[in-house]
Amino acid sequence: MSHASTHSEPNLNKQSSIGLFEKLDEQQQRVRALYWFGSLFTLIIGAIAISVGSYGVDFSLPMKLLSNVFQTEAPAQSETGILFIGQELRLPRVVMTMIVGAVLSMCGAAMQGLFRNPMADPSLLGISGGAAVAAAAVIVFGGGIFTTWVGAAYVLPSAAFAGSLLSMLMIVRMGYRKGYLSIVTLLLAGIAMNALASTGLGYLSFIADDSSLRLITYWTMGSFGGASWQVVMALLPFCLLSTILIYRQREALNLLLMGESEARYLGINVKRVKNTLLLAVALGVGASVSATGMIAFVGLVVPHLVRKLVGPDYRTLLPGSALIGAILLTASDIVSRLIVAPAELPIGIVTSAIGAPFFLFLLLKRGSVQDAA
């Protein structure tokens, strides 16, 4: 009997090791597939986004733009207009949708890891609302600052960052109960913050003049209609810093999945990690809201999709979320331009149409799990 067991134990260990390596190999294949197909589809969706618009559809435009970069002679007179539309209107819009989609998705993934809750999202917790109120206040009370100051392009991102950071600090402060971050209280605080933001936006809309009112309406529904290379360059440093700060905390986020006590035991400075992530999320969300207005549910949906594909490891979840987020928001922008053409549907309506049912599904699934427990 003992002789048989001595032979069976190594066989069991060998089989379990083989199974583990097979799972790891399958995981690596999924990650590679995500990166390869995601990168390819990013190029495809970007080319489609450049080709379509209110000025008509021209699927040869991406190649015309590419050849125009390398040719030494001036383009033909007949192509000057379409090249201008591609270079100055559509291309910066595509770049901005990809930047904002990547940043919002990474911010959503970071918040879900920080709070260890799948329903954490900048728009649900009132962070986007706080950024929008601060940006709207600058629009209403800024006076002639946008035409008189050379650094005016950075005023709105800075104000929106301050508003998102302040709202996030207030929400997290209200979410703590006896040293423990209550997710239920956090979500309720987010609902209250969204209500306050709606009140603030309503008041600012009431006292604003006609031009400011149009801009505030633009913030509340979200749009890429104001995309330009100047806006892209103003947005880029804020978003780049946000993504770098979040990605540097990938190992800490993996350890936080086990709990704060376990992460602290393994040598993670939990307080510093929290402060860094909160700052990075506020920075990314504030800059995005200042450039495009309030775009909901991107940070909720995308991390879930990527988690289903490649697992919860933040070393792959964060870059995967950035990639899929860029694709999703660019595709949503294409829909917003085509669905009521030649007019343009606010992109916040499109993302809410995708995200709201998804959020309800998460609530129902979470409720059924708790009932079963």
Q: Give the number of domains.
A: 1
Relative helix content: over 70%
Gross CATH architecture? Orthogonal Bundle
- What's the SSE pattern? HHHHHHEEHHHHHHHHH
Structural class by secondary-structure content: mainly alpha
Number of DSSP E strands: 2
Strand content: under 5%
**Count of individual helical segments:** 15
Mean pLDDT: 81
Summarize the biggest pleated sheet: 2 strands, antiparallel
Q: Unreliable stretches, pLDDT < 50, 5 or more residues?
A: 369-373
Q: Largest beta sheet: what is the strand line-up?
A: 1-2
> How far do the termini sit from each other?
41 Å
General description of the model:
A two-stranded antiparallel sheet has the order 1-2. Helix 4 (127-141) packs antiparallel against helix 8 (210-221). It has 373 residues and is mainly alpha-helical. A hairpin with a 2-residue loop joins strand 1 (176-177) and strand 2 (180-181). It has one domain (2-372): ABC transporter involved in vitamin B12 uptake, BtuC (Orthogonal Bundle), CATH 1.10.3470. It is 79% helix and 1% strand. It has helices spanning 2-51, 61-70, 77-115, 127-141, 145-148, 155-175, 183-207, 210-221, 229-247, 250-256, 260-265, 270-292, 298-310, 314-338, 347-372, and strands at residues 176-177, 180-181. The longest helix is centred in the first third of the chain and has 50 residues, at 2-51. The protein contains 15 helices and 2 strands.
Features:
373 residues, mainly alpha, ABC transporter involved in vitamin B12 uptake, BtuC, two-stranded antiparallel ribbon, 15 helices, 2 strands, disordered C terminus
